[in-house]
Amino acid sequence: MPAIASMTHQVLTRPINQPAERQVEVGVEREDQAQPRNIYQIQNIESSAQLYIQTLKNWQVKETSIQFSSDYFYRPSQGEKVNFRDTYVFTKSQNRWQFLKHPQSEPDGVLKCNKTAEGWMRCD
Fold this sequence. Notes:
The protein is mainly β. The protein has helices at 2-12, 39-43, and strands spanning 52-61, 65-74, 82-93, 96-101, 109-110, 113-115, 121-123.
């Protein structure tokens, strides 16, 4: 869990000196130093918006790997709340867990949210 918490903190923190408009190769990973995609850059989130995690779900836990999805949200300075999902894979090597990759080449992206008959918000 510490490795997942650290990766989540990294995703939620806007990169220093990297405005959302900066063009980079999002999602390009090297095996020796895999990095999660930067949602701020993917979504061009303006500097005043803060990214928050809503839920971790779709867990697939195996002896040497863990895969899960994270639902994030943010509110642009003008507009409705935006919900966004991405999926991550961690692997265990040398008795420690580390981020390995994203299982898909692109994130799930922006979600559509609707209220269920029971009053719950469901985002897909």
